[in-house]
Amino acid sequence: MLDGVNSKPDFDTMAVHAGREDLVELGLHAPPLDLSTTYPARDSRAEAARLEEFAEGARPPGQPVYARLDNPTVGRFERALAELEGAEQAVAFASGMAALSACLLATVAAGRPHVVAVRPLYGTSDHLLASGLLGTRVSWATPETLAAELRPDTGLVLVETPANPTLREHDLRDLAIACGEVPLLVDNTFATPVLQRPIECGADIVLHSATKFLGGHGDVLGGVVACREGFARSLRQMRFVTGATLHPLAGYLLLRGLSTLPVRVEAASATAHELATRLAEHPAVLRVHYPGLDPLRPRGQLRGGGPLLAFEVAGDPHAVIGAVRLITPAVSLGSVDSLIQHPASLSHHIVGEDDRRNAGISEGLLRLSIGLEHVEDLWADLSAALEAGAARRAG
Ligand SMILES: *Cc1c(COP(=O)(O)O)cnc(C)c1O
């Protein structure tokens, strides 16, 4: 990959160089941004043959015929993400939900519409499975009951670890064994490949809302699935017919985001660990959910505690949201600025109240995504907001 480097480069090095291998030969420094919607060709017969290949999910050499089939700039992001996750392929989509929808549609199309999933999941993912809108049928399981829920028509097992929003962790090696021949899909949005590479732990498919840490600046909506070539073909077929393509500019920005991903995630994780420790001592906080503080967590899986934490307040959680002045009071996560939100009102509002409570998402739970601000500025803002929340209950 890199001249003069025989062994595989370090992850940090891959994050900078993946998807850019040919730039020096092209005489370029920044990757080219190809905004074409169509690609002229004088030989229609040859184009017909290539179109067929694209429609079957292959990627024949040369230009993509039409922008819904493929895009060279997006292709760079896909190659880079596949490399970082240790996967054969990656397929990018217009959003994280478009990526998950394509996985479910591919599963239904393969004649195995039954999905086993472990709660909690991101609210819209939970809703998509619970509603059966795409023709899947879900059985909810715990890691312990998962194997017993598998049926001959089970096409997919779906988990998040750490899970949104409670940061609950699952042992992926154990889950991969329990799944047997059924593909295990891991939503790795919270950990990013910097802290956790599910394929190394036995998972088959890794999904990201690229909107979060991969983009990293709150200005790109995107999704991506890393997997083997066979499933990637099914996903490209689905993308071709549904049109859930990632815009080339988004692909450009996501590739740029990957180059700083390790630095951003490491810095935010260190701050999150410090804030989680302080929150655990704070009188207005009932409970802190943070992987780095849990002694019983799976070993050798998530490196460090990560940039997200959640905590339950005794006072009014809405007053805490209303009182922050530095931290951004908004849903979403993974940006350079810290974001706080109330899962029961926003990210998980669409999940039924009972299901929400059973998954550990209480009314007092707040989720905090740490950015790149200084830890003392964040703590000053957070502790002042906690006082406001506690006062609201008292008053
Ligand atoms: C945000 C999110 C999604 C959905 O991604 P979009 O890009 O918003 O469609 C899926 N999974 C997790 C864990 C998320 O946080």
TrEMBL record:
Top class in the EC scheme: lyase
Needed co-factor(s): pyridoxal 5'-phosphate
GO cellular component, one term: cytoplasm
SUPFAM superfamilies tied to this protein: PLP-dependent transferases
GO biological process, one term: cysteine biosynthetic process via cystathionine
GO MF terms, alphabetically ordered: cystathionine gamma-lyase activity; homocysteine desulfhydrase activity; methionine gamma-lyase activity; pyridoxal phosphate binding
Pfam family, one: Cys_Met_Meta_PP
Keywords from the UniProt entry: Antibiotic biosynthesis, Lyase, Pyridoxal phosphate
In-chain residues carrying the UniProt-annotated modification N6-(pyridoxal phosphate)lysine: K212
Origin superkingdom: Bacteria
Catalytic activity: L-homocysteine + H2O = 2-oxobutanoate + hydrogen sulfide + NH4(+) + H(+); L-methionine + H2O = methanethiol + 2-oxobutanoate + NH4(+)
EC id: 4.4.1.2
The keyword Lyase appears for this protein: yes
Family: Belongs to the trans-sulfuration enzymes family.
Protein name as annotated: homocysteine desulfhydrase
